Amino acid sequence: MQPQNRQPIVAGNWKMNGDPALIEQMSAALAQVELNNVKVVVCPPTVYLSMLNAKNFSKGAQNVSDKSGGAFTGETSTSMLKDVQVEYVIVGHSERREYYVEDNLLVAEKVATILDAGLTPIFCIGESEQIRDAGQLFEFLAEQLDAVLNRVGVKNFANLVVAYEPIWAIGTGKTATPEQAQEVHHFIRQHIASKDEKVAQELVILYGGSVNGANATSIFAQPDVDGGLVGGASLKPAEFIKICQAANELR
Ligand code: PGA
Questions:
Q1: Cβ(209) to ligand 1 under 6 A?
Q2: Using one digit for the tens of pLDDT, what is the confidence trace for 6-52?
Q3: Which residue range(s) make up the domain with 136?
Q4: How remote is the CA of residue 49 from the centroid of ligand 1, in Å?
Q5: Ligand 1: residue whose CA is nearest its atom 3
């Protein structure tokens, strides 16, 4: 029994890409479209956040420190992100977990820091191909979810967004099928529902991994998929808008 009243979100994760020209193009392109049923979030590299003219959409950061300030060279705090009108922060992305050795404990700490600041975490989870092939998919995802559940409590899942991003589908052009996405999104919702049914029904769960203008509609049409976290295709304004429009027509 899905109430289906969750507001879809499409977030663009630029990663370490883009430049001031793209910031301008994206701001201008999004200012021209009406997207009343979807929340659009653009997450450029940190240095460009203050240059985004986010008229029609929200700003998101790709990372944040778990510390509030002080001698932490190279880091950015939640209050600094708030100074440039950031509302969302991506956390637990597989690239941060893999290349910057962010483990479940640090991810949970960052989620807590983001929530404490009144910002919305886009909390990413996802398995490698080996884990899926070994039949450990659900066990692995439950562990990633539990680390954050244990740190911030289930009630706080009302204040965050979960993004399911199978690592084998990120930047590979190999998208999960709509059925594969639905299966995992349903599992995530059930896992949260075992602790709090209402929070689970209202939880926005995004799919990420090679989402583009051509496949967005079929993925977003799944009952437990509430939009997407988009990498490569979020660097092309027309393509990104197409994905936002697919989510806009979702519910
Ligand atoms: P992709 O990246 O859309 O390029 O696969 C998604 C992500 O990593 O968030």
A1: yes
A2: 999 999 999 999 999 999 999 999 999 999 999 999 999 999 999 99
A3: 21-63+78-248
A4: 19
A5: 231
